[in-house]
Amino acid sequence: MVKLTQRQEKLLTALAESGVGLSLKDLEGLMKVSRRTIYREFADLKLYLQSQGVAITNENGLYRLTGQVAKLDGVFEDEVAKQELTTAKRESILACQLLLAGQATKIISLALSLKVSEGTIQRDLTKLERSLSQYDLHVIKQKGVGVYIEGNEAKRRQVLTGILLNELNEYYFLRYVQKGEEVAQFKQLFLDAINPQIFRQVYQGLSQTILPVVELNSDRQMIQLILIATISIKRAQLGKHPHASKTKDNLRYLAKVYEFFATLDGSLRAKLTTDEALFIASQIHLRDYSEQQFDLNEDQEWPLTLKVRQFVLDVSKDFGWNFQRNPDFFKRLTRHILNLEKNSHDRLPNVQIETLQTLTTKYQGLYNSIMKCWPQNFELRLVIPEYQLILLYFANEYTNRRYLQDLAALIVCENGIGTANILASRLKKELPEIKRVSITHLAVLGQVDLQQYDLILSTLELPGFPREYQLVSPLLLNDEVKRLKDYLANYHRPDYGQVKTSLVKHKNALKKLSQMKAYLDLSLKLITQTQVHKVANQGSDLGASIEETLAHIPGEIINDKEKVTLALLRRINLAPIGIPDTNLALLHTSDAGVNQCYFGIYELAHPIKMLGMDREEMQVSRYTLMVAPKEVTDLEQKVLGIISSSIVMNSENTNVFETGTSEAVQELLANQLLNEIPKEK
Q1: Which of 206, 201, 238, 243 is nearest to 222 (CA)?
Q2: Quick one: CA torsion of 640, 644, 645, 648, rounded to 10 degrees?
Q3: Are 282 and 274 in contact (CB under 8 A)?
Q4: Burial class for 220, CB neighbours closer than 10 Å (0-12, 13-18, 19+)
Q5: Which of 26, 199, 221, 502 is the one with CA 20 to 30 A from 619?
Q6: Which CATH number does 6-80 carry?
Q7: What is the pLDDT of residues 606-625, one digit of tens each?
Q8: Which CATH architecture has domain 509-675?
Q9: Which of 454, 469, 362, 332 is nearest to 403 (CA)?
């Protein structure tokens, strides 16, 4: 039986309960969708309703259900308990199924497995076709046969790896392959196409053979290797192999790849050919940091490279943190500075960019180091937004999660001895990323330099403590271990120059609580509003897209949508709003046409060309929208600033806003706003 979407269920329920019927205008208001969408839902429901002996009839402009309507009662009851996939998640699963498949799949089978209508699958396939065409992969539909994807096998595997990498939580994926902890996403993502146990076997085989002899730049690259090796095994079992040539680069890894093959079960390695070995060897070479060089392309200037090296070294020394470890960061920064020098005639205007301004406040110490070291190395004078954009690169690198594998923890206990050592021992065992553990007691806590520690644990409550800490028992129980793992999964090292290191007393406690409640109320209101919406734009007209966007925002939030549209367009013309190296842009304005603060995310049916903040042209497929009244309170300014800065705080955050679901964005914002709960001054 085809299951209904929540919208279809709501539509049928409204028609069934309407008695005389509902007009299209009634349905538009009730469903909060356009007339076109209502017609599309009617078409999608037609065959299903016919099978139930029911029809949607139109009498004098009023729509109602006729026929054996009582047969739908059980369907409505079943649908209440159903948990619908988000559109983005469903599209990802559909892409995974087709990219993994070895033969054509009938559309009805896809509809049944994803519990949606065939019409929904057809629309998803149209979007997938557009997305894959840029990789020379093509969605082929054959009547009576089904749908399949054809194109270069290597690209097919790389695209599939990219989709999975975006969908999986890296932290929990590694916990699964390393320790067998359950990952609920597997069944949903693969729908049994790949047995999750294969990932564990692949990881164990790589750990024995490949991983000890290569130097990977991040956990993400290790996950990429696990994914691409697993996908290669699956595709080889289906008789699908890439064409791979021998090169001096992949030959050096070939013997190790064959050692890896030997660790696999016979059923997994049976169809692994020389081409498969060469393909995997090439993927290893691409990710082996020891084989990568800092050198830029031939057309990039060597003198500039030397200047950037010195600039990065100077910032590292001044700020006290090593920014010289990541060649990818160096290349991105060099490319950006090269563009600055080449386009010195077309500079960013010296106007405040709210998102970058909030980031500057958060990382003031790092920003000061950049401002100090830039003129020591470059003659080009920058305006404030250009300094802030360089800060964005450094801040992303500073919060890069691959550096969070060497953490320091401080344990605070009553006397600093005895059971604290048991706690320290268990902490190291359960959380191997914590390499250094120190123990202290209350009498000397005020003398401890707290900025030296990433994680602070205490066996007793610490009222007024200036840093976030975790309250645990001396034995560190299993539920406490899980809580710490979840905390570290979302942890980002702060700019410790902003952290106070002395205890404070509570003053004006009632006032503080009232302020905290107001902060939480506003935060929750904005998070609840935050959704990923689809914009059915028909072309590259940004103004029309904004009008379409604002049309779905309730009147109590915006009282003059035409005025707000013009304000947004003026802001866009003032300075570029695209985030470099993404498909994401930031739309924001404060205007008298706005009644209440609002934040949302909008995904375009057709990407629009815009300028990025680095003045490079980019394709924008999604944008965030933040609007506020002309006059905002300090509290509203603070909360909006936290939301705004979270978008560009690090690459992981940016990726969530660029590709994530409503739920993922809401969870990220909730974590961010909780971490920024006002502290006593």
Answers
A1: 206
A2: 170
A3: no
A4: middle
A5: 221
A6: 1.10.10.10
A7: 888 888 877 777 889 999 99
A8: 3-Layer(aba) Sandwich (3.40)
A9: 454
